[in-house]
Amino acid sequence: MSWAFLRDLLSGVNKYSTGIGRIWVAVVFMFRLLVYVAAAENIWKHEHDEFECNIKQPGCENVCFDHFFPVSHIRLWALQLIMVSTPSLLVIFHVAYRENREKHQNQKLYRNPGKIDGGLLCTYLISLILKTGFEIVFLVLFYKLYNGFKIPRLVKCDIKPCPNIVDCYISKPTEKMIFLYFLVATSCLCIVLNLGELSYLIFKYSIKCYLKRHVKKQQ
């Protein structure tokens, strides 16, 4: 899979982000996207082929793998990366709308089309809420699908057509668990950064509005 589009998207978002937003972009790009492409993708590349059970009953190994891994970790991570990054398109589209509006009317309508204020502020806040929501949803989804954030060495399966309780072994469980904890930790860090940026912007513009009202009252 080519991640060029996601890389370009994150680079575009960086132009219109606050300081905290730029840290978020760096974390997503360096500690999630690059780690995913360079290492994590290869670790889970042959997870089905390397899943072994101590019986050769036709179909048993397949149904056991499907039961314990209903969705591939790596595909779920890929979907998570895409979903938490795409809300930033709202900000890029809004800035493009401002620039296009100025171009058509042939006059300066904004001091800076990329400045976070007015309608763009609302769009930016919505994108932060969506990104945070997607992060939480995927963390809950991971926890529910795999019964926690852990990779067991051995799983016991008694689903038909397995004739009895079968022992199945997962390859490289320690290595997979280390990367799982790392990706969960970076996801939690992104949630903290999004909430921090959300609180910062709300506080900043609340103070700004308060000061404007105070000046008007004095005048």
Number of helices: 7
- Report the CATH architecture: Up-down Bundle
Order of helices and strands: HHEHHHHEEH
Helix content: 55-70%
End-to-end Cα distance? 60 Å
Question: Can you give the mean pLDDT?
Answer: 82
> What structural class should be given to the helix and strand makeup?
mainly alpha
Strand order of the largest sheet: 1-3-2
**What do we call the CATH topology?**
de novo design (two linked rop proteins)
CATH superfamily: Gap junction channel protein cysteine-rich domain
Note the overall shape. elongated
Q: Give the tally of β-strands.
A: 3
Just give the CATH class.
Mainly Alpha
Which stretches are low in confidence, meaning pLDDT under 50 for 5 or more residues running? none
Main β sheet profile: 3 strands, antiparallel
**Could you tell me the radius of gyration in angstroms?**
23 Å
| Number of separate domains | 1
- What percent strand? under 5%
Pfam families: Connexin
Main location: other
GO molecular function, one term: gap junction channel activity
Membrane topology: Multi-pass membrane protein
